[in-house]
Amino acid sequence: MSRYDLLSLQGKAKRDPEGYRDDVLMQLQHYNALHGLFMLKPGKDFKAFADLTTFLAQVAKSYPRDMPEFHRPIIELLDTHYALLEPSLRRSLTSALILLHNRGACALGDLLPLFFKMFRCEDKPLRALVFAHVVAAVRRANKTKRDETLNRSVQNFLRSALMDENVAAAKKALAVLTELYRRNVWNDARTVNLVAEATKHASPKILVAALKFFLGQDEAAEAAAEAGDEDSDSDEDKPKTGAGTKAGTSSGVSKEDVYRAYNKGEKKIFFGFFFWVRRHRIPRRTRARGPAQFPRLAPRHELVPPADDALIYLLLSRFL
Q1: Which of 66, 94, 105, 184 is the most buried (most CB within 10 A)?
Q2: Ranges assigned E (strand) in 33-87
Q3: So where are the chain's domains?
Q4: In whole angstroms, what is the distance from residue 316 CA to residue 168 CA?
């Protein structure tokens, strides 16, 4: 069926589920056949499969007996072939899972391992979609009263995600924590302890992001990181012209190439952060020492040894 026919059937099935049950089950059989083919070998002819998945996700709530766990095959496909699927199909399947979760067809705990696995994809719109949904889902669960069961399960998962060897996944886990803290959803000591544990990550990028949280600069850092990603993505596609560039000089070496040659390396990122802190430091006569200087360290308690506090204070105060 075409996309228009599926949209028409979608409206009819929602108005009269029993009257169009046979038609929906026929499309479900077609979906199962296509799903089996994509599990064997993901193909590029995915538009029909994406439209069919979106249609079934829309009507799944009207047929709880026929599609009790419709999210399971989608999770299985993404978990197995997330790196091989076309970006449009990957986003369509992820949107279907988000729709199913919003309608109560699956729990957030079932989706978190897959979502943080997909943070490793070189797909910025997909990462933004998943990040926004995770933050919104936790906020919605704690809107009327705190859902401690969900909070503990998500925080336990984020604890392991913070130590992920993949820097992108670990950075997104830290971003979820800091964003929920900034929105006053998770503002307890447990959240601050998790951010403090991120300072033990092997990557300097994660350490810098965690220290910026304690400096109160995490919002500006996140915006700068997003802008930096956009600049780096766009610079690769822009042609270099004019004086001092490959097109304007006989040497064929641009100013950007020279700058990148002298400024690449993770150590440069690490020490560049502290030079930035020194430029924005508070005068020594006017600033306080201890927890008053870094108020986000105040909620920390016995979950983390005091030696970790001393290390963080040393890293922060030494360069201020």
Answers
A1: 94
A2: none
A3: 1-105, 107-229+263-320
A4: 24
